[in-house]
Amino acid sequence: MFAAYASRQGYCLLDSRLFIPEKWFSDEYAEKRTKCQFPEDLEFKTKPQLAVAMFRELENQESISFKYVVSDTLYGNSPDFIEAVENCSGVTYFVSVANDALCWLTQPITRKKTYQYKARSEPNRDRKNRKKGVNSNNDCS
Length: 141
Description:
The chain is of the alpha+beta class and about 140 residues long. It has a domain at about 1-95. It is built from five helices and four strands, in the order E-E-H-H-E-H-H-E-H. It has a two-stranded antiparallel ribbon. It has a two-stranded parallel sheet with strand order 3-4. Strand 1 (about 1-5) and strand 2 form a beta hairpin. Helix 2 (about 45-60) runs parallel beside helix 4 (about 80-85). The protein starts with a strand and ends in a 9-residue tail after the last helix.
């Protein structure tokens, strides 16, 4: 997998990472790992996890400025990748999402509902207690 830069002035490869399937980290592939000289401390990472690491490193280096991030569905469906891009101020991102993803075409109106009770106890509780013949004021009389 890779990260690339493109502008009117040109394009270049910024970073790349080798994705290794999870099965290669099982006991079944121990001999292959040895033959390929895998580092002992190498751990499995998903493609979105590798992308987040690359993105954060590029952002921290501050060697190249960018306004846009574009990715395919694999990264568009990753909350970790989306969070990493959203935490980068001044960046707009375009990510592909699954064709069955549900989304709002316009921002929905939301309201915060607050409840105020004049009585000390909840109204439903008082109704239940009255049916049982219990005093809702917690008096012993």
